[in-house]
Specification:
Layout (H helix, E strand, L loop, with lengths): L5 E5 L2 H11 L8 E5 L6 H12 L13 E4 L6 E5 L9 H4 L2 H4 L4 E5 L12 E7 L5 E7 L1
Helix pairs in contact: 1-2
Bound molecules: adenosine-5'-triphosphate and magnesium ion (MG).
Length: 142
């Protein structure tokens, strides 16, 4: 198991938002972030915090139906993806999402575990539900 470069125990949605907003300061043009964790772990909440940290004023919602939402108007474009509906091991290039990885923006990918194992990311963030509103957040460098 790779060692996390950062670990945080969040006690509430507000704490996850605040942590993610700060984490966004690390992100540079072209960075890609895989978000993994069970249903309701907080991947979308964390994405919302990152979007706030990048300077987006509007809200971020689950893109489950659209697969990808693109946000513009801040210092970098943000692509928020949710691959929950993809078959496991689906071909990344066939899906056509690799295009978004090359836009020089920030890509946040929920359910990145749907992608083939070899897919690389700048960061992997795992959210682990520890009961109630407690979440363990682990960041692994890609
Ligand atoms: N510490 C916490 N951090 C984040 N969310 C929390 C926390 N405690 C409770 N919650 C709640 O958990 C839910 C997280 O929902 P969210 O949509 O972010 O999950 P998700 O991981 O994106 O799920 P899905 O796989 O369905 O996309 C929200 O209802 C939120 O209020
Ligand atoms: Mg979600």
């Amino acid at each position: 198991m790779p060692q996390p470069i950062e670990e945080f125990r969040s006690a509430s949605e507000a704490e996850t938002l605040a942590w993610a907003e700060k984490f966004a300061a690390r992100l540079r043009a072209g960075d890609t972030v895989a978000l993994s964790g069970n249903l309701g772990a907080g991947k979308t909440v964390l994405s919302r915090g990152i979007s706030r940290g990048l300077g987006f004023a509007g809200d971020v919602h689950s893109p489950s139906y659209a697969l990808i939402h693109e946000y513009t108007g801040a210092r970098l474009p943000l692509f928020h993806m949710d691959l929950y509906r993809l078959a496991e091991g689906a071909d990344w290039e066939e899906i056509g999402l690799d295009h978004y990885f090359q836009q020089g923006g920030i890509c946040l990918v929920e359910w990145a575990e749907r992608l083939p194992a070899g897919q690389s990311f700048s960061y992997r963030i795992e959210l682990i539900i520890e009961g109630g509103d407690t979440r363990r957040i682990r960041v692994i460098a890609g």
